[in-house]
Amino acid sequence: MKDLTCIIIGGGYAGLAALKAIKKKFRGMEKKGRRIRFVLIDKQPGHLRKLRLFRPTTAEEEIMIPWKQLLLEGFEFVQGTVTSVNSRGKRIRYTNAIGNEARICYDLLVVAVGSTVRRLNAEQGGIALIEPQAAEDIREHWRTNLRKAVDERDPEERKRLMTITVAGAGISGIETSAELALAMRKEAATLRLNSADISVYLLNAQERLPPEGAEKVGRKLDQKLSQCGVTVLHNRKAMREETGIVMLNNGDYLAAGLCIWTIGLMPNPVLQGMGLPLTTEGQVLVDECYRVQGMPDVYSIGDCARIIDPRTDKADQMTCLEAGMQGIRLGKIVMADLEDRPAPIHKSVKSNMDYFNIGLGQNGFFWIRKWGLDMTMTGKVPGKIKNLVEDYASMLR
Questions:
Q1: Beta-strand pair 284-285/363-370
Q2: Most buried of the four, 31, 189, 229, 349, by CB within 10 Å?
Q3: What share of the chain is helix, strand, coil (3-state, %, to 5)?
Q4: Where does the FAD/NAD(P)-binding domain start and stop, copy by copy (predicted)?
Q5: CATH C-level class of 4-117+266-351
């Protein structure tokens, strides 16, 4: 039997889940003498823990994990950016870490390049939380502002230096604002500033948090954020920041020492040049078994793919939970396709319920809706559960 080469593009949560699941399913074949070579291609030198991107905004924390520190073994790593996929010739072209072009052939290909944080035009000001360096820049910026506030005699300017706005109230924005409020209050006390003067505003373009939850859930989340030191402004959207003034959609403004943008995700733009079939939003078109349309032996999962639950006709959300479940199912699908038998189809993990778990400093806020009932849990337990889930998704040793 022919040995196989399985290439996985993207070492994020979806890519790692796919690699683990396919390797597990192939153990039986390897025992029968059929070998498979696994190659992981990613532009980063390690696994980026995107769920913890907000953490370096307040403390020095390494969220880029070397591949050798992961539980996964038995794969080759190639650092590079894939530029095209030739499905007829079953080969991909990529640019390696030093800028040289190279090619590699495959028998099975999994595209899991994920998503990126939406970028803004430079003239809109502020700092977009898009990468670890941006998080570090944010940390240095607010710390510098607090040091300036120590010697500032103008009360209005001191107040501005001790104020931050976070534009975008998704999970990333909520967690970022809570983490910053807690850290800034602690730092202010160390500098002998009045911690009560710290202001962190979370700008929510919707009527409440979360928009899919009941009103009472939103009120409770607002309350927990307030206890962290965050003021949520609903029906407010930041338009731009200029010279310390954040202009809002209703004509009001906020004086702030820093404006942070957390305005959601978009499919990885690198997909545009790969030659894959894409939706108008830029996601890979796949069937209910994650097979890329018109490209045999090519699969795609995670944020970069448009995955629809055939029973509900609803698209999967861009979260690591969905990516992990898709990866597990993909292992079964690939094996079924190789053995020429019916493959399992996609099933949304949230088909019968909605839920999320948000970090609020060391604590958490867990919400679930099932059978029409809204249930919440707060405190250290959901915070610890969230950390454990993130560690599992990153496959840390």
A1: unpaired
A2: 229
A3: 35, 30, 35
A4: 6-309
A5: alpha beta
